[in-house]
Amino acid sequence: MPDRIANAVSYDDSSNLDSQVTDDQIAVRRYMDTRAYRRAAASVENPLTSNQSLYGGLAAISVLMTGLTVAMVVIIQLTEDLMVSIPAYLIAMTYIQTLALPPLVVFSFAVGAALFWYPSVLLRMLFGLVMVLPAFGGFCSAIWLAEMRYDPSMMLEPAICLFTQFMTSATVAILVQFFTPWTLAHYRGRTADPIPPTGLRAFFELTAFFAIGFVILVAVGTADLLAGMMVFGGIGIITTGAVTSLLVGTLQSGNQSKRGWVLAAVLAFGSAAVINAVYAASLFSWDAALQNVALVALASLYGALVIMGTFAICVTILRRFQWQCINRRNQVPAE
């Protein structure tokens, strides 16, 4: 009998407690169960210094790009004999996209992240170049070792095409930063000053960089490389749009934005479609890629999955090093 009375009292107490829970408390409990809260709590328990966050995140992206680039060259050399006779289109594009897309989109991610950062544009450009140069150096070294000869002229065409992609990626990142309140930032401590808006000075610095790049392109002569420059430039524009959308959608405080993921996926599909259509028209001498739109779309879907998977790895790296996207309109001034 006493046990029954005790159980009844316990049940009544728990019922009263549940009935006393407010809507605000329920909302707090739900937020504490989210992945965003667990990530924020983990970052508080394991804080990084500002320099560790900055250099660690950028260096990790650079190492990833270098590893993927060298692996691409090595695998292509090892499987060169298997690809002498061009197989079916879907098999060829699966092979090409599996090897070439990851380092290519990490290139756009590195440049986009560096230029979506908040310091002066010239400093961002410097960091972007420092991030991509090891990968290009690894690419050149692997090619020269595979060919068993040192010929700098072999690297002229890929260097110009990648430089074009660098410039278009930089432009997109700065434009997004200028016309939206969002910017990318490493961990700056709890009392950091608010980040100022992107001003016209950023465009003057970008114009100066473009002028230098234009002089370089004219000096080396790029008339024969116009098609490649257009393709790489287009890839840079589309993939960097996906990068900025993904960064805003995944690294902002609070819950992730599904719209960022959706827009990034659409742009990733568009970027893959450009690559697949160009290869369809050039490698197989198709009169028009539209005549085989179903095959191009199917190959592009696989390419989009590869791109989004690669981007997910890059975003995870930045999150581990406590980078975040900040809405400059909602910043709290430091005390």
UniProtKB/TrEMBL annotation:
It comes from Rubripirellula lacrimiformis. Signal peptide: none annotated. Keywords: Membrane, Transmembrane, Transmembrane helix. The chain crosses the membrane at residues 54-76, 88-118, 125-146, 166-187, 199-220, 226-248, 260-281, 293-318. The keyword Transmembrane applies. This is Uncharacterized protein.
